[in-house]
Specification:
The protein has 341 residues and is α+β, with helices and mostly antiparallel strands. Helix content is 40%, strand content 21%. Helix 4 packs across helix 8 and helix 5 packs parallel to helix 6. It is globular, with a radius of gyration of 23 Å.
Length: 341
C-alpha cells in the first residue's frame, strides 16, 4: 500500500519491494521445493532470487521505463543504459539464510540520481518491516521516524558484521579484528544480511556494522537509511566515498569515531605502516599467519602482489644490514646502508 507522504518514486519502490516480498514469503512456505544453484563457493542463488528480481524490475520499469537498472542477478541488462536515474537492487539479501529457513533476509532497493543515492527501501518480508528513506526527509520504519543509537561507550554497544566466506578471503585477519573488538564491545553479531544490518543500525537496534567484500547493491539502500537516521557510513578509514570500495563501516557518530581507529589498519586504503601493523596483529593472534592483509577486499592477485612488495620492502633489509655489520669493518656498513637504500 502506498503512502501519500512518500515521494512518488519511493512509493513505486515500496510497491516493488512488497511484490518481491510476497514471492519470497510464498516460497518460504516450502523451502525444500526451492531450486538452488551455486554462483561460487558458499555463494548461492535460487529461483526465488530471479523471480523476485523480475517482479522488482517489472514494477520499476513499468512506472519509469527511461530509468536504468543495476541488479545483483541480471546486472545492467535491463533498463536504459545511459540514464541519470539508476535503480540498485538486491532482490533477496541473505539467500543462504533463506535456503536454510533462517528468517533473516530482505529486499533492498535504492535509486541513485547522477551517482548519489536519493531514495531507499529495505523490506523484511518475514516481519513485514518496511524501512524507507528519502534524502533530506529522514529515515522511517513502518512510517515511524527512526534514529541511530544514542550510546556513546563502545563497551555498551552491539556491533554487527559479516564473516568472510569466499575462497581467498582472509579469515585470519577477521580473527584479529574480532580479537580487537570483542573485548571492547558488549557483543558481536553476524546476522547474514548486510542490507538489514544497516537498517538495524539506522533504527538503533545495533550500534554499528562493518564488513568487507560487499557489493554496491548490498549497501546502497542501507547507506541512505543510516545517514538519514543521523549516523555515519564510510570505509574502514572513515572516507565517505565507499559504495564501490567493497568495504563498509556504519554507526552512530560517537561509536563510528571510536571504531575507525580500530579498523583503519585493516583497510585496503591504509598506509604501509598501518598495513604492517595489521599484519603484526594478525600474527599476534595466530603465529602461523603470514603477512597478507585485506584479501577479502581486493582481488587475490593484487593482495598477493601487495603482500610480496611489503615483505620485500620490510623483511630483507634488516637481515642484510645485520650480516654486513658482522662481516665488514665499522666504516663498511655505512656503504652497505647506502647501497641498501
Amino acid at each position: 500500500m502506498s503512502s501519500p507522504n512518500l515521494h512518488p518514486m519511493l512509493n513505486v519502490a515500496v510497491k516493488a519491494a512488497r511484490a518481491a516480498g510476497a514471492i519470497i514469503n510464498r516460497a518460504a512456505l516450502d523451502i525444500e521445493a526451492v531450486r538452488v544453484s551455486q554462483k561460487q563457493v558458499n555463494d548461492f542463488v535460487t529461483e526465488v532470487d530471479h523471480a523476485s528480481e523480475r517482479a522488482v524490475i517489472d514494477t520499476l520499469l513499468g512506472a519509469y521505463p527511461g530509468h536504468g537498472i543495476l541488479a545483483e542477478e541480471s546486472g545492467t541488462e535491463h533498463g536504459a543504459q545511459d540514464s541519470d536515474y539508476v535503480w540498485i537492487i538486491d532482490p533477496l539479501d541473505g539467500t543462504t539464510n533463506f535456503i536454510h529457513g533462517f528468517p533473516v533476509y530482505c529486499v533492498s532497493i535504492a535509486l541513485a540520481v547522477k551517482g548519489k543515492v536519493e531514495h531507499a527501501v529495505i523490506y523484511d518480508p518475514t516481519r513485514n518491516d518496511l524501512f524507507t528513506a528519502t534524502r533530506g526527509r529522514g529515515a522511517f520504519m513502518n512510517e515511524r521516524r527512526i534514529r541511530v543509537s544514542k550510546r556513546t561507550r563502545l563497551n555498551e554497544c552491539l556491533i554487527s558484521t559479516g564473516f568472510p566466506f569466499r575462497t581467498g578471503d582472509n579469515f585470519k585477519q577477521y580473527l584479529a579484528i574480532m580479537a580487537d573488538l570483542m573485548p571492547r564491545a558488549a557483543g558481536l553479531r553476524r546476522p547474514g544480511a548486510a542490507a538489514l544490518d544497516l537498517a538495524y543500525v539506522a533504527a538503533g537496534f545495533s550500534d554499528a556494522f562493518f564488513e568487507t567484500g560487499l557489493n554496491i547493491w548490498d549497501v546502497a539502500a542501507g547507506s541512505l537509511l543510516v545517514t538519514e537516521a543521523g549516523g555515519l557510513i564510510g570505509n574502514f578509514t572513515g572516507e565517505p566515498d565507499f559504495l564501490d570500495q567493497r568495504e563498509c563501516l556504519a554507526g552512530s557518530p560517537r561509536i563510528y569515531g571510536q571504531l575507525v581507529p580500530l579498523l583503519a589498519k585493516y583497510s585496503k586504503f591504509a598506509s604501509v605502516d598501518d598495513k604492517f601493523a595489521a599484519s603484526e596483529r594478525v600474527r599476534a593472534v595466530d603465529p602461523s599467519a603470514g603477512s597478507v592483509y585485506a584479501r577479502s577486499t581486493v582481488h587475490a592477485a593484487t593482495a598477493e602482489a601487495e603482500a610480496s612488495a611489503d615483505a620485500a620492502a620490510a623483511a630483507p633489509p634488516p637481515r642484510k644490514l645485520t650480516r654486513l655489520r658482522r662481516e665488514e669493518s665499522p666504516a663498511t656498513p655505512v656503504q652497505g646502508d647506502a647501497a641498501a637504500e
